[in-house]
Amino acid sequence: MGNGTRGGGDGQVSAAVAMRSPVTRSVVAALAVVVAGALATAEEFLPAHDLTEFVPTRIEYDSVGGAGEAFYGYDGRVWERWETDFPQAEQNFAKRLNQLTNVVASRQPARRKLTAPNLGDSPLIYMSDVGYMALSGPEMRALRQYLYNGGFLWVDDFWGDAEWASFERAMAGVLPGRRWRVLPIEHAIFHTVFDIDEMPQIPARDFAHRADTAEPPWVHRFPAGSLDVASIRAYADDDGRLMAIATHNTDIADGWERESYGEWYFERFSTQSYRVGINVIVYALTH
């Protein structure tokens, strides 16, 4: 993973650069708390966590349907859609983020609802497996406020036409009138740290040995339609700032979660997943 890096040295990202980002607001807030502590007890103003540390933040949401839709059985337990790959994916990713950049990342991810009052503490929030997601009115309004206040949403691991259509309907309520676009490979998000010349398609572990990297249509919402082309689709504000991206027809986080699946899987898929993930985080923290 050390080859093809940009941005200095061993692919590390300057901490000073990383601070020119949405997270700066949180740092300023933390400094204000320290000053206020001169007039009150430190305990009163202690933040929930160190706001100078990047905490991977997974969003909890509700899904429609029953077994195989809103929830599913796997590895001997029942999973809700929102928690797919959680928390091991974030734990492994934070470890690699600390190793390969100067971003200080917590190995303990957070989980929050969109309506949580401290949602803005996180400069980037992550949602997974959103093909059956259902957002309430208050959740849509909270997400809209978060995005227009400078936050960044990353949505991953959903496949095909029906799952995209479901997500697009939700985003029409969050960002009325805004259209998504596919980011071309020339976009800076593909070149912030690592040079990525093709958007990788990462299948879930169980499908990794198929000749075709696209997951089979029967494991996704009907009608699945096109599953073949992985892309990053994005919503931007009036100034062109990316507010939300979706890694569609690919499962980036499974490459993190399953990095110990075997040397072949790690070299074939996890290395690509980490390149994409690191580029996304660093882009979000510096734009």
What are the salient characteristics of this protein?
287 residues, alpha/beta, Rossmann fold, five-stranded mixed sheet, two-stranded parallel sheet, 32% helix, 16% strand, globular, disordered N terminus
Assembly context of the chains: single chain
Architecture per CATH nomenclature, i.e. the level-2 architecture? 3-Layer(aba) Sandwich
Overall tally of domains: 1
- Write down the CATH topology: Rossmann fold
Please state roughly what percent of the residues sit in beta strands, choosing from under 5%, 5-15%, 15-25%, 25-35%, 35-45% or over 45%: 15-25%
Q: Quick one: CATH class?
A: Alpha Beta
Low-confidence stretches: 1-47
User: What is the CATH superfamily?
Assistant: Domain of unknown function DUF4159
Give structural notes.
It is a single chain. It contains 8 helices and 11 strands. The chain is α/β, with parallel strands linked by helices and about 290 residues long. It has one domain: Rossmann fold (3-Layer(aba) Sandwich), CATH 3.40.50.
How is the secondary structure organized here?
Elements: H1 15-18, H2 23-36, H3 42-45, E1 57-60, E2 62-63, E3 71-74, E4 77-80, H4 88-100, E5 110-113, E6 124-128, E7 133-134, H5 137-148, E8 152-158, H6 160-174, E9 181-182, E10 231-236, E11 242-248, H7 252-257, H8 263-286
Parallel strand pairs: 1-5, 6-8, 8-11
Antiparallel strand pairs: 2-7, 3-4, 9-10, 10-11
Summarize the structure.
The protein is an alpha/beta fold and 287 residues long. It contains 8 helices and 11 strands.
